[in-house]
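The authors assume throughout that readers already know how a fold can be written as discrete tokens. A single example would do more here than another paragraph of explanation. An entry of this sort, consisting of the sequence and the corresponding backbone structure tokens, reads as follows:
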Amino acid sequence: MKKFLVKCLFLFFPILTTANPIAPQQSSSLFEHLNEVNKEWSKFYALENLNANYFFNDENQRIQTHLNLVENHLRNNVPKGLSQSQLKNRTQALDILKRYFEIERFPVNHYHAQRQPYFIDKSGTACAVGHLIIKTGFESFAQQISKENNYAYISELAIVYPELKKWAKEFGFTLEELAWIQPAYPSIIQTWNQVGNGGEVSGVINKMESFNNEKLYIAGDFTEIDGTPANSIITWDGSIWSTLGHGVTGEIFDIYIDESEISPDVPGRVYIAGNFYVNDNPNIVNVAFWENGVWNGLETSSMIGEVYSFILLSENSVIIGGNFEVQDSSNNVINNLAVINLDDNYAHNYDGALSVNGMVTDMVYSNTSNNILIAGDFTETATSSSDTSINHLETLHIAYWQRSLTNWTLGFEQGLGPISSVLIKDGFLYTSAMLHSFSNKSIGIFGAGLWSYNSSPKPIDESLSRYIYGIESFGDHVIFYGNIRSNFALDNSKGVYILNQYGQRKSARFDNPVTAVKTFQEQVYFAGTFTSVNDQNFSGLVSTPFDDPTSNENQKSSNNLNIYSSPSQINIQYQYQSFSENFDLKFYNMNGQLVSGKDLPSGSSDISISTQGWTKGIYVYQAVSKSGKVYSGKVSVM
């Protein structure tokens, strides 16, 4: 009876003690540490005394200890009934395993927020079982597993691959022993840093913009950051805070930085938009620019409401969007969308052509055209114009304005509800919902004429009216931030929802909403109303390197490999100048699952692959050469 109770205790013990991960440096029982690496330890409770407290220098040392103990037990406990050939092979494999863990080079979990097996990681490092299979002469089989089911457990692999059971039998192992050998690897540990000296943000940060990676402009509605008094706008160069005059009274929602420069760390102009007046000149309201140490006004008539978004059209004109009323030179009222000429500071809207029937929340340039993408809470364009030559489009909260034609060019029949933010990246349009509703999707992605949707993010705080505040790009990643939490089973992110083009996730857990995100000096800066990140205490403004070995922009290009879809097939074109070596092309769905692959020989080619049986939607492709050159992007299958 006593033995049964002890066995039950160990069977339930891992469940009770591993709700929170145990760090290698944390003092805990050896059993708990080993169980972090491999849950199969719960089946081997009687091996030896595992109750003594241990701590390790790092994760690799803990994995090494796990493999050392397993190898020692397997060497001294040989299953009965093995043939001489199996005994010889088992001893050979255990010798290989011993040399493997002594080197202490293990796979790295690049893509998962939780602990996960990696049969072979992206650098070519195999797990212990994968290494055994490779070194015993079955490399092609190991590569097949890596290609098709790289993140599966042995118990899962054994169902898919009868060859695994055959290999185990030939080398004198049981599948249970292989499952015990196989470690799971922790996510890459992110370091989080308080920006500045740890002082709080007295207010809210709405927007951050970087200039030449030398200065980070931070704006919102605050009176102090990190102990430095500042009225709603301040700069940070990585070590020193600087103010811009006496700032403004009120709230700034957007910053636009002129690319021209006075010096490498001083732009020609810094434009701001919001609902404020300039303290140095209260006649300047809602839109202004900072130049040569002085605030200048863009619109000095009576403007009522908020300006949310700002784009520089030329040296002499800007376009603003928001929820406002402003008068033109003839005292006509313009709502929500307007152009301001810097020569006379008057607003106009091309005789009503540049107008919509609701609020504008965000605007971005399309780098591949002369268009401006305008988004918000509206369903019709050109509502203030009776000119029949102007396109009066019915659209769902988003449309393109073509500058050269001063006309609307494209509306959308599908999409989200009212939109809070938009991003154009790698030819794809990302949109986020302004308000949360279980009947609507949270995220919309548009490319090659098709929409795909994601409904995973849910609100942190149901009582807040705002939902997704914005979208930011970082390397391969797209960061959605705001009053959101992940609804994905293996991702406990809060404040952010982070995806990359392979459908893989990064994770971060803020206790309250994130209000602004920006990349600066190789770090990603996060601002918000949070007081902790990943259960560490921080005060509203933090940075992290978010190391991502998959992101190497110097190796990537979308111009040298042309991949596009047509009915029933995907077309692939490339030229010898870029493809002087062989490439391995793979297609993944948005869940990160491998769908198809093809070898691309060196030279020039124009080929196609069938998409029969593929589900309609967006797919990610990645072409990799042996030298490490990478081409990647997305394609829609219709």
